[in-house]
Amino acid sequence: MTTQIPRATVLVVDDNEANRSLALHTLEDEGYRVVLASGGEEAIALVEREVPDCVVLDVRMPGLDGFAVCERIRSLPRAAETPVVFLTALRDVETFDLALRSGGDDFLTKPVRPTELVIRVQSALKLRRLGAELREHYTLLKSQRDDMVRLQLQKERLMAFVVHDLKNPVNAMDLHAQILARDHALSDDARESAVQIRGAARQLNRMILNLLDLSKADEGKLTVTRADVALRPLVDAVTGEIALAARERDVTCEVALETDRVRADEDLLRRTLANLVENAIRHAPRRTVVRVLGTRGDGATELRVVDGGTGVPPSMRDQIFDPFVQLERDGLPSSRSGRGLGLTFCRLAVEAHGGRIWIEDANPGAVFALRIPDAG
Q1: 212, 163 contact by CB (below 8 A)
Q2: What distance in Å separates the CA atoms of residue 36 and residue 47, rounded to the nearest whole number?
Q3: What average pLDDT does the segment 332-342 reach?
Q4: Is pLDDT at 152 greater than 90 in this prediction?
Q5: Are the C-beta atoms of residues 290 and 305 closer than 8 Å to each other?
Q6: pTM beyond cutoff 0.85
Q7: For the chain, how big is the Rg over CA atoms in Å?
């Protein structure tokens, strides 16, 4: 006669009915026995009665919050070692540290993906069964993991500061530069300086928006809003915005489009092209041409930005889209070294459209090509 192994019991504590229902169906589909509680006091009573194998615990609830509930669970003799996985919409270092101090074993931020919830519960249950020696190794790994999570949350806080606190003064710089550039009482040199200030302010604003979108992509929140975009006006706006940089480097921009329109997120596409054209101008030799080409075929639009610079070796063509990459030629820094996050943003923006970005030879120079498929 076969002895049936009892199913692991998971207690899900959340004051939101939709969240409880999602967790219930997700975990039951994986074979777990799920017990639900809508508040802290009910959860503690269930722990005393059921002694669950794992607790999935919301942080913000009326009455007892998740931290207080976790501390009470840890004080119960039969539940002192029960793994607790916190769920919270608060993504900050303080909440993370409070979760650890109250006795939490893991930390998930909402909205929670069902697959991730299952994996974390499985891990918590497996770790509960570890022997003392393995538990010591786990404690070390967990400490290292916690440090990494804390650093990530601190990075996100810094990102939020950079984006939200710098956008307003940069926009003010751009506005005042426009006013000065239109003031005919000023000398030509003074108005030219205002134009240069405006160009630098717009470049800085684009970098700030790139940072914001990179942060969204890290959290899986970078969304694409497709619309019917007229290509020629968009490309003309990009080349006009970067005209000053081209003039300073004695580089000419040429546009040749065989297609008029594309289904894309206009803002993401405009900033992608601006990054690619600016990159091409920066690496193009003086008195050369940077070309922007557009074609259609096989249910997609392809755009290419071509320069006559040093090109990118095949071995480096994937690396150049990584953040802050430093490329080398013959052991020395390459003139094509990445400068910040512009090309990283381009890759994320194109991939968010379901497309891809790559590099081809221009003989001489480089071709940055991107393909945006038609929306399904």
Answers
A1: yes
A2: 11
A3: 54
A4: no
A5: yes
A6: no
A7: 27
Cα separations (Å) of 125 from 34, 53, 57, 267, 351?
Answer: 14, 7, 15, 45, 36
- Measured distance CA(281)–CA(28) in Å, rounded: 57
Q: Is the predicted pLDDT of residue 72 greater than 80, yes or no?
A: yes
What pLDDT shows up at residue 219?
60
pLDDT digits 0-9 by tens, 36-65: 999 999 999 999 998 899 999 999 998 899
Of the chain, the end-to-end C-alpha distance in Å amounts to 54
Asked whether residue 120 falls in the same domain as residue 24, the answer is yes
Same domain membership, residue 245 and residue 325 = yes
Q: Is the pLDDT of residue 372 over 90?
A: yes
Question: Which residue range forms the structural domain that includes residue 244?
Answer: 227-373
214 shares a domain with 242: no
C-alpha span between 93 and 102 (Å, rounded): 14
* 3-class SS string, 18-85: HHHHHHHHHHHHCCCEEEEECCHHHHHHHHHHHCCCEEEEECCCCCCCHHHHHHHHHCCHHHCCCCEE
Q: Answer whether residue 170 is part of any domain.
A: yes
- State how far the Cα of 207 lies from the Cα of 210, in Å rounded to an integer: 5
Tell me if 196 is assigned to some domain: yes
Do 369 and 231 lie in one domain? The reply is yes
**Would residue 134 count as lying in a domain?**
no
The three-class DSSP label of residue 96 is helix
Given a contact cutoff of 8 angstroms between Cβ atoms, the answer to whether 7 and 33 are in contact is yes
Check whether residue 76 and residue 117 sit in a common domain: yes
Q: Is residue 34 part of a domain?
A: yes
Residues near 248 by beta carbon (within 8 Å), at least 6 away in sequence? none
Question: Which 3 state secondary structure label does DSSP give 313?
Answer: coil
β-sheet bridge partners, residue 303 = 294, 370
- Residue with more model confidence, 6 or 304: 304
| Residues 214 and 312 reside in one and the same domain | no
